[in-house]
Structure formats: structure tokens, C-alpha cells
Amino acid sequence: MKKFFTYKNILILIVLFYFIILMLRITIRYIPYNLDVGFLIIKQDYIHIKHWRYAFFIHVYTSLFVLFAGATQFSKYLLQKHKKLHRIFGYAYSINVLMITGPAALIMSFYANGGTISKIAFILLSFLWLYYTLVALIKARQLSFKAHERFMIRSYALTLSAITLRIWKFLIMNFLDIPPMDVYRIVAWLGWGLNLIFAEIYIQRMKKRATEIKNIKGD
């Protein structure tokens, strides 16, 4: 427990908790089935499309759980002390992404604001999210835990795009003079692209550190 409650872990938990609460506040606005609030104000042309509308509400209502369940997968405390709980949350995260939230996000991608540029960005994001999550699940089933961890990092990096997209949108709109639709095209790529780059850098550092440790032990 002492190793878990480090200043770094506490700071990460506080930041994550803050953004989960922020996402909860956004989600609450749509309960139970409000069609004229938040993001839907600029999507009135698509409200009548049933599959898009259902996909939107499914995505909104389940994304918060995905954020939480995914975060638990990187808790060393859970992994070491409560492996069964780690697996339960892992399966819940994977099933949610693969069968509920991910497909809903993919459907929405084809109707993204900002034209073809934005649509391609969100379609690619959805496919990568589904792919990385599926491979992470397969690797866990195969007991290939190092590969499982790497693909979970990639998957959760894309999950966090729900947060980073909004951060970038806020920063660009408040500090740069760019037309709204151009902002949307930029954040459609920036919101998850940088996340994936940082995830890959982190993964490569993990591999390098593991190799160094292996070489030291070999000596």
C-alpha cells in the first residue's frame, strides 16, 4: 500500500478523477434523452437518423465507464494484490470497447463535423481503438502479458482522446483565431494523434529499460 500512495500516483489519480468528474457533468446534461443540449445543438441535421442518434447516446452513456475501467488496468496495487479484480475490470473494459462504445463511436465517425478530413480522423481512431483493444485481450488470453500491457497502453491512450480532444479544443479556441470548423478538423487528429505518439515513446522506453535490466542480470 505504501508504494501505491506515492506523490506521483496521488497526482495522477487527482487529475484523472477531475476529468472523470468533468466528463460526468457533460454526460448528465443528456440524461435521460435530451436532444437539444451540448454537442447535439450543432448536430440537429443528424438527430432524425436513428442509428446515429442511438450510437451517440450509447457512446455518451458508456464512455465514462470505459475511462474508469481502463484506468484500473495500470494500477500496480490491483495487479499485485487483487488480480481477479484486475481481470474483471480488464474484461469489462475490453467488452465495452469492442461491443458497445467502440462500434457506436465508429458509426458516429461517418457523420463527424468538419467534412472528409474529420471523418477520416475519427474513422481511423475508431478502428485503431477496436484493434488495439482486441489485440490486448488476445494477448492476455495467451498469457503474453508484456505484449498485453503494450497494447493496453495504446488502447487507453486512444480512450483518453475523449479528454484530450476537449482540452485541445479549449486551448485552440481561446488562444488562437481559427474558424470553428477548422478547429474541429485540427482537434479531430490532434486529440488522439499526440496521445498515440506519447504512448509509443513510453512503450519504447519500457522496452529499452527491460533490455537494460536483462543485460545487467546477464552480466
**Count of discrete structural domains:** 1
**Number of helical segments?**
8
Q: pLDDT under 50 segments (min length 5)?
A: none
Give the overall average pLDDT: 85
Structural class: mainly alpha
Oligomer: single chain
The percent range for helix content is over 70%
Radius of gyration based on Cα positions? 19 Å
What sort of overall outline do the alpha carbons produce when their principal axes are compared? Answer: globular
Portion in beta strands:
under 5%
Biggest sheet, open or closed, and with what strands and sense?
Answer: none
Q: Count the beta strands.
A: 0
Report how far apart the termini are: 33 Å
From N to C, what is the helix and strand string? HHHHHHHH
Description:
The protein is mainly α and 219 residues long. It has one domain (7-218). 79% of the residues lie in helices and 0% in strands. It has 8 helices and no strands. Helix 1 runs antiparallel to helix 2 (50-72). The longest helix is centred in the C-terminal third of the chain and has 39 residues, at 180-218. 27% of the residues are buried. The model has no long low-confidence stretch (mean pLDDT 85).
List keywords for this structure.
single chain; 219 residues; mainly alpha; globular
Question: Secondary-structure blueprint of this entry?
Answer:
Layout: H1 7-28, H2 50-72, H3 76-81, H4 83-109, H5 115-141, H6 145-159, H7 161-175, H8 180-218
